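Fig. S4 source data, part A: sequence.
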Amino acid sequence: MDDAERRARFEELFVANFRPLLGYAARRMTDATSAADVVSNVFLVAWRRLDDVPPGDEARLWLYGTARRILANHHRSERRRSALVLKLGAHVTTHAQTESTELAVDLIEALEKLDADDAELLRLTAWEGLTPSQLAQMWGIPATTVRTRLHRARRRLRRELSGNAGPDPDMRQTTGASPLEISREDT
């Protein structure tokens, strides 16, 4: 299938299925923005795997199946996040709630000051519950590299939180490559 045929097939799938999929997602989500995100992800998967999308009426079923899996992933993430919030909330006293809120704000501000790759690595481990081994598999790099980068990201976060955000002794002079990309120095 050439590019023009792929584009035409995708547009046909999109036009025929966008509204029904948005309704499906909206009935299962708490807000319209999240439902739209789910549908966007469905069509992203469809574009990437267009050759796997069956022809005719089966295409809609394939898209619904993809939407169901994306919704399940979203709900799993939300349950994990809610469980973490409840777990953390159980340890917070009423007196400490103000301090907890201030700490959360400080933490968010510190994460925003970090390199985007460090912040993403910390979020994936803390909020999404992914292990260094899972991240290594996802990124295609050694688990030891992920553990080292996680250790350094945590140290940089602690420095940001303590207000000692000077030059980072761990940062090497690089060619501008993303810290999540493996370099010759990491092998």
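Fig. S4 source data, part B ends here. The domain at 95-186 is CATH 1.10.10.10 (Arc Repressor Mutant, subunit A).
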